[in-house]
Task: inverse folding
């Protein structure tokens, strides 16, 4: 994983994707590429635990859009929802609501 935090993910090493677990993200975490977003201290949020970090998942915008394979690297719960920070396999990142993500045990054929 070179010095390109949002580059394409090598699926042979997806489990080594930098991620954040067990605490709120900071602005520095985003700059380092271990988190996609941060919520200022003035707003309520707390870490939301998944069984496994990082996690393979399928993102569907608004829950029914086209399937996009992603690797989840961050989750935080707010008063309104659970936010997911993910990296796209093809490069890039995004944030979505947990309702837009299908968590998987590992990569499937959609990742290759």
Result:
């Amino acid at each position: 994983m070179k010095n390109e935090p949002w580059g394409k993910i090598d699926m042979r090493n997806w489990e080594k994707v930098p991620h954040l677990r067990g605490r709120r993200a900071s602005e520095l975490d985003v700059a380092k590429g271990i988190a996609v977003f941060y919520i200022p201290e003035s707003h309520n949020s707390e870490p939301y635990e998944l069984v496994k970090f990082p996690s393979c998942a399928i993102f569907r915008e608004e829950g029914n859009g086209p399937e996009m394979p992603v690797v989840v690297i961050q989750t935080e719960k707010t008063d309104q929802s659970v936010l997911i920070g993910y990296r796209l396999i093809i490069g890039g990142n995004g944030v979505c609501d947990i309702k837009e993500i299908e968590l998987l045990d590992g990569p499937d054929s959609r990742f290759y």
